[in-house]
Design goal:
alpha+beta; Tetrahydropterin Synthase, Chain A; four-stranded antiparallel sheet; three-stranded antiparallel sheet; 9 helices; 11 strands; elongated
Length: 361
Amino acid sequence: MPWSNQNGGGGPWGGGGGNNQGPWGQGPNRPRGGGSGKGGPPDLEDIIRRGQDQLRNIVPGGFNGGVAVIVAAVVAIFWLIQCVYVVQPDERGVELRFGKPKDEISMPGLHFHLWPLESVETVKVTVQQLNIGATSASSSNGLMLSSDKSVINVQFAVFYTVSDPKAYLFNVENPAETLQQVSDSAMREIVGRRPAQDAFRSNRQPIEVDVLNIVQDTMNRYGAGVTVTGVTIQNVAPPREVADAFEEVQRAGRDRDSTIEDANRYTNQKLGQARGDAARIREDAAAYKNRVVKEAEGEAQRFTAINDEYSKAPEVTRKRLFIETMEQVLKNSKKVIIDEKQGVLPYLPLNELGKPAQQGG
């Protein structure tokens, strides 16, 4: 029963002996000047009474019924707030009814579910990065053994997306930790099949592709709802204890590679020159062959033509051949041959006969 003074009684215990008496039958100690006049402070009971009257006017059904309505309204508002949830653009939601996930996937936006009978779990579906391995040179988390018995410290990253939110949330207890363990195991397996040089410089891409395939196959068998989009080796370093010796080995390897490259470059240069010379010699030989063959064919045709003419007029042809032959033999001769019958032969180089005498004189 609320504390009221509707019947003119005392305080909430019903005691008191009349107006202006306290709950124990005594009147309140009031300062001089009396009552609630302008000269004294306001009466506490009057303030409470006026507040009760105002509350009865505001709340339907009086003070007792109004409290129930307020409580019900507060509960309803709280329930409505719990029933409404928001899925962000980079998220997907899965509703659970009595702990069992529904088949529908909640897309980004505002959604409603029956709380507390239903609940919701959200997961990010954008590309996420998982760093695995050594974070510093002194860390031993990424130590791996290669096929050539070298110990290396490998740090790499796995990029993945959630392709099936329901499977990601409920098929595997801790998908991120499972992905990390699977990725670390796959990297150790692939590094163990290859020499250390492949991880350091030359063949990182095949290692990354092999690790990605192994991780994706394993996560698919687990039904984790994860799609691995990429694997990147970020850093490969020797253990701190052997870093200096390893650097010497790397430097020697680089010098060896440089020497091999110089030798290959010199070999290619000499081979190029030799191939060029061989091609030129072959071309010269082919040209010489063609020239000799053509000359021989021309001589043969000339001999055939002369033979035909000779068969028609043997005497004339024989004399002409003799004269042409003697012309070729005697054209550079400095002697004058005079025939007793014909005199000086006209085919001798008479214009050149006087030049030696003039130069000598």
